[in-house]
Amino acid sequence: MTEVSKASAYPKSVQPGLPRLGVTPPGWSRGPLSEHLFEEARPVKMADDEIYDLVTAKRSRGGVVLRERLKGKEIAVKSQFRLKAGDFLISKRQIVHGACGIVPPELDGAIVSNEYAVLRARPSLNLQFLNCLAHSIYFQQTCFHSSIGVHVEKMIFKLEDWLRWDFDLPPARDQRRIAEILATWDQAIGTVEALIANAREQKAALMQALLSGERRLPGFTGAWSTQRLSDVADIIVSNVDKKSRPGERAVRLCNYTDVYASDRIESDQAFMPATASSAQIERFGLCVGDVVITKDSETPGDIAVPSYVASTSPDLVCGYHLAILRPRTADGQFLKYLLEQPVSRQYFASRANGATRFGLTVGAIEETPVTIPQLDEQQAIGEVVRVAELSLCRLTAQLADLRQEKAALMQQLLTGKRRVGAPQSEAA
């Protein structure tokens, strides 16, 4: 097996490095997976009118999920195999991307083709522990080096080769304990993910109600007016590129990805260093309250993604492929939220020009219809939505922390650097 020297040539989901084990932890045993795993085939004789659940293993160890339900006569590949809850499933064409996982109870009885390997374990290996082990780089590297093919998307997994790789395994009781510990982290992560989904739904509903005028905040009764975007804000399209030129002033460049990936632009973010002329800095320098939108994109749906400038500095300049909306009679925060609404997204997508890359003309941006209340009501609405957005941001940060902490703990547990003790019920 040849070690791949340029890992950057592969997607992040692929670990092509040469697998190497360190020193076996005390009390653990080293040996090939063939001593612990075996393939179990349960052929299915399909009936034309019977309905079957077909599953798929998601990439990056995303789990085993339902793909579709079909009648037997609608399934092209007739060589199918029955699954049982607790099986360890490997996609032979996607395992280099981490497509594997445990079959959950709700998919007991589902079927898969021979494009999958269905594995069971002997008493020496806990399959829930193996599912955790699948997150280790060593596991992922063994899968890559047990697959053949020229193109990473067409590599085929060779189960018999993979089963020859040595793994360091703790005693079965410790395996079960490690799996239980990591499962509690998964439960905590799942709880926060559910809270985030709920917070997103609530924020979307709040925005829809407030930004359409369907729901009014206390104390506001004035009529809303429909105007063109250019009536309430100046449209400034930047021409500042990423190059640095002698004689120009050093600046920090707010680029396309800075806007696309962030709801808010803050002066302390890490921006790209570049240079610009004094005239460009004066014209394209960002001001607090500006809204910056993406003017070009690879898809019409990503046109005019907005970001609000919450803080700035004299050297922060808007880059190419972006447009600054500088409010005159509008509140920037309100305007940013308004441009995120479905009706605005549909308008921009319909006005995007292009075939392989799409863009908005200045005229299309200027003509964007906006229905807005008086400035004080805009500001009040913007603050209410911002509170909901901050709550969502806190939950998202909490989720990122939990995932990072779990990854660190997993690394220690799966390498034996951190040992586990028996639960109190077992110790007693």
Description of the molecule:
- The chain is an alpha+beta fold and 428 residues long.
- It folds into two domains: 7-169, Alpha-Beta Complex (Adenine-n6-DNA-methyltransferase TaqI, Chain A, domain 2), CATH 3.90.220; 225-372, Adenine-n6-DNA-methyltransferase TaqI, Chain A, domain 2, CATH 3.90.220.20.
- 33% of the residues lie in helices and 23% in strands.
- The protein is built from twelve helices and 26 strands.
- Strand 24 (353-354) and strand 25 (358-359) form a beta hairpin.
- Helix 1 crosses helix 4.
- The chain is elongated.
- Mean pLDDT is 93; it is low at 1-7 and 424-428.
Structure summary:
The chain has 428 residues and is α+β, with helices and mostly antiparallel strands. The protein contains 12 helices and 26 strands. The chain is 33% helix and 23% strand.
Features:
disordered N terminus, 12 helices, Adenine-n6-DNA-methyltransferase TaqI, Chain A, domain 2, alpha+beta, 33% helix, disordered C terminus
Give me the secondary-structure topology.
Blueprint: E1 29-32, E2 37-39, E3 43-44, E4 51-57, E5 64-71, E6 80-82, E7 88-91, E8 100-102, E9 111-113, E10 116-121, H1 127-133, H2 137-144, E11 147-148, E12 156-157, H3 159-162, E13 166-169, H4 172-211, E14 225-228, H5 229-232, E15 233-237, E16 249-254, H6 256-260, E17 264-265, E18 272-276, H7 278-284, E19 291-294, E20 296-297, E21 306-309, E22 316-318, E23 322-327, H8 332-339, H9 342-351, E24 353-354, E25 358-359, H10 362-366, E26 369-372, H11 375-414, H12 424-427
Parallel strand pairs: 16-22, 17-21
Antiparallel strand pairs: 1-13, 2-10, 3-6, 4-5, 6-9, 7-8, 7-10, 11-12, 14-26, 15-23, 16-18, 19-21, 19-23, 20-25, 24-25
Helix pairs in contact: 1-4, 4-11, 8-11
